[in-house]
Amino acid sequence: LPRSSCMPCLGLPPTGERWGKILALLPTMYLSAGTCTALIIVGGGSMKILFSIACGPACVARPPTMVEWYVVFVCVAVVLSQLPNLNSIAGVSLVGATAAVGYCTMIWVISVTKGRVAGVSYDPVKASSDVDRTIAVLNGLGIIAFAFRGHNLVLEIQGTMPSTLKHPSHVPMWKGVKFAYLVVALCLYPVAIGGFWAYGNQIPPNGILSALYKFHSRDVSRLVIGLATLLVIVNCLTTFQIYAMPVFDNMEAGYVHKKNRPCPWWLRAGFRALFGAVNLLIAVALPFLSELAGLLGGISLPVTLAYPCFMWLAIMKPGRGTAMWCVNWALGCLGMGLSFVLIVGNLWGLVATGLHVQFFKPAEFQ
């Protein structure tokens, strides 16, 4: 089939190859790169914590620097990312999901069992003005949009599944999505509720894993905390493969389209190593990337909330003025409008509060 006719399978709006790449492929690519960079930061920091736990308080060895931990994580991730496509990493995805369920359960159980830490407070941070409060809300919504970036891979995954008129791929895909989000809810809601109850405003900027290590490293077995940290590392390594795969596919597709021949294994390995090196450079050079999470989430939001509605309209062609036509147009415009509001709000917040730019100085993951 011509590439333009496969746009819906690849998660691209059926607007032609050029506009499909501009409107959908580009946001998916930079969102995948931003996610992998965040995974390098979290995974490298977790490796540092695991080293501290394994070495113990009386350790005399010189611990590697944060940048060196980033390098270790990227090297392992690149080695593990040599599988060719999304179909081949089903087992990797299962391992990552199991690790996520394991460490989420361990974290909230330990936090709730040990009780609230000293000096905990649940008072909300009061903004100085309505403008600051609005900016904070918009930034929070943008971060939530960035956190649920997995939506952008749903159509990529469905595109790899066999589909016929008798057995369309959307039936098992819908069942899988419902089950997946049930598991996500069972993992994240206990972590959010239990973590807030246990730590309140005392939680460190790096998240609840750092809180677990900071507050319970002495009253919880090192083996238990070390196992939870190891599961976080495993999850980051496996998740790296999943979110990087759209970039790998696009790089290889470009080669195949230009050379009209399959991509050799050594070039595939080179593409993956190059992608890992670029993300490592971003993680080291732009340690303030987390401050841009809300903006990145707002920019990529149409891929999740707007494009599917417009794609359905273009593919199914419902009658103008019918209920489904109105609903999809309304939801698509609402998604685009929400994206615009989040982008403006986050840019406004960065201008008002300032961006703490500090190049090539990664913060210590404590």
From TrEMBL:
Superkingdom in the source lineage: Eukaryota
PANTHER family (UniProt xref): OS05G0424000 PROTEIN-RELATED
Protein name per the record: Amino acid transporter transmembrane domain-containing protein
Cellular compartments annotated: Membrane
InterPro entries: AA_transpt_TM
Annotated transmembrane regions: 22-45, 66-83, 89-110, 179-200, 220-244, 265-286, 292-315, 327-351
Keywords recorded for this protein, A-Z: Amino-acid transport, Membrane, Transmembrane, Transmembrane helix, Transport
UniProt organism field: Aegilops tauschii subsp. strangulata
Domain Amino acid transporter transmembrane: 19-344
Keyword Transmembrane among record annotations: yes
